[in-house]
Amino acid sequence: MHTVTVMTRAGCHACERAEQQVERICTELGVEWSTADVDSDTEWRAEYGDRVPVILVDGKEHGYWTVEEDRLRAALSS
Known about the structure:
This is Glutaredoxin-like protein. Pfam families: Glrx-like (PF05768). It comes from Saccharomonospora marina XMU15. Helix content is 42%, strand content 27%. It is of the alpha+beta class. It has one domain: Glutaredoxin (3-Layer(aba) Sandwich), CATH 3.40.30. Helix 1 (13-29) links the parallel strand 1 (3-8) and strand 2 (32-37).
C-alpha cells in the first residue's frame, strides 16, 4: 500500500491547490495521504523549502510545484 505526503508551507497557495488535488486522487484510489510543514524541521526546510509543494510517494520525492495527476495516478497504481 502506498502513502503520499505533501510537503507544504503556511500561506502557500500552490500548496493548498496541491493538497486539494492529492486529497481527491488519494480518496478515489483509497491511498493514505498527509501533509507536513517544511518549516517545522530544519532538514526538511533545507531539502524542500524552495520547491514547495513537494509530493512524496512512499517517502521518496515524486514531484514539486504542481501535481501531475496522470503521473501520480500511475505511481499509485503500481
